[in-house]
Design goal:
Length: 382
């Protein structure tokens, strides 16, 4: 039985690849469709990841913010009493302020570069990045700043330790070089310093606290903390909830998600139409061969297995080539454009796999219907 099944699949494979033009058209259609699907979803995944870069890099367990905040960069200043209130909540181990704002850096060559400045709590430096050069204690030195070594690092001239620059006519000294989990979305470098230094260097509104970072005593205390903060008219979310909040805003309120989804659907339809039509043509051209197999005693179920094998083999081949081509393109793009945002995730691959399975299912259904209607008598009579 096993040798019979192997022989059936070998025969199906030979029928499939015998006509190279049709086989290449089948694989090419699915490859092109997979490439576009993975490319669009990877680009969107990269945008979402970078939009939440500050949240991922700081890694606080609970964030307190104004309810109107949609993204990390659109922070709304919190009054000082909010910090005092949060610290008084039972179940809060400690709570610290976080500053987030933009500034202009004057480089040694006289040019200006926008940057994002993150101000950490002076006492705890909670949310500090991991350093690859320097010591975090040097952040307390006069004019001390830590620069992030990411895709935007070169825009500051890749400053080494002890390099100097000006921020709003204030001297800034690089005391550390950090590496973070995710680069920012807006294409600007990131600097870390203390909270007090940040608000003294950057002109701010009356309220300078962008977010309050909370460390609960236990995970079970988070629900009570949220309720207490909500009673004051503000919002408390976990790290994952904040990432989801930013992602949902980009997905549903900016049009980016709709555009990416539309492109993925168009890619799916293109792949389905090309593969379905080409596979149907392949069945028509090999109708006499299937009729002959039926005449010598091959059962309809075995013919169905042949068609399924051909469709699945073609789909998986196109899927592999499409994913490989997309990965290669992203790799080359990052070599040329370090801040290119696209990244391939397991979710992207799963979406592409499911869509390719649907393409294979529809194509095989078209072929099965045609093959099962073949009558050997009509084939030999013709």
């Amino acid at each position: 039985m096993r040798s019979l099944m192997n022989g059936t699949f070998i025969l199906a494979f030979k029928l499939l690849v015998n006509d190279r033009a049709k086989f290449q058209a089948l694989v090419g259609g699915i490859t092109f469709s997979t490439f576009l699907i993975v490319q669009m979803t990877s680009l969107f995944a990269g945008i979402l990841s970078r939009a939440s870069s500050t949240v991922l890099n700081v890694g606080a367990k609970v964030w307190v913010m104004d309810p109107a905040v949609n993204t990390v960069s659109s922070s709304i200043g919190l009054p000082d009493y909010v910090l005092d209130f949060v610290r008084s909540i039972e179940g809060v181990s400690y709570a610290v302020p976080l500053y987030s704002g933009g500034a202009l850096v004057k480089l040694n060559n006289g040019t200006y570069q926008p940057v994002t400045i993150i101000g950490l709590d002076d006492d705890t430096l909670y949310g500090r990045p991991a350093l690859e050069q320097g010591s975090i204690e040097d952040l307390y030195a006069d004019d001390g700043f830590v620069v992030v070594n990411d895709a935007e690092y070169s825009k500051l001239g890749s400053p080494p330790l002890k390099a100097q620059m000006q921020i709003n006519d204030h001297r800034a000294v690089i005391v550390g070089v950090a590496r973070v989990a995710s680069s920012g979305l807006n294409g600007v470098p990131t600097l870390y310093t203390t909270y007090k230094r940040a608000i003294s260097y950057v002109p701010s509104t009356r309220f300078t606290t962008a977010y309050i970072l909370v460390e609960p005593k236990q995970a079970s205390d988070i629900a009570a903390i949220k309720a207490q903060v909500a009673s004051l008219g503000y919002l408390a979310v976990t790290n994952d909830e904040f990432v989801s909040k930013v992602s949902n805003w980009f997905m549903y309120q900016t049009g980016a998600g709709t555009n990416m989804m539309l492109m993925a659907v168009i890619s799916f339809i293109v792949g389905l139409s090309i593969s379905g039509q080409t596979f149907y043509t392949f069945i028509l051209e090999n109708e006499s061969k299937f009729g002959a197999l039926k005449a010598i005693g091959m059962k309809g179920s075995e013919l169905v297995k042949m068609i399924l094998f051909q469709a699945i083999f073609t789909a998986l081949t196109g899927l592999g080539l499409g994913v490989g081509l997309c990965t290669l393109m992203i790799f080359i793009a990052r070599l040329r454009l370090p801040d290119y945002a696209a990244k391939v995730t397991y979710e992207n691959l799963l979406i592409a796999f499911l869509m390719v399975l649907i393409i294979a299912g529809v194509s095989s259904y078209i072929g099965v219907r045609r093959v099962l209607r073949i009558e050997p008598f009509d084939i030999f009579r013709g």
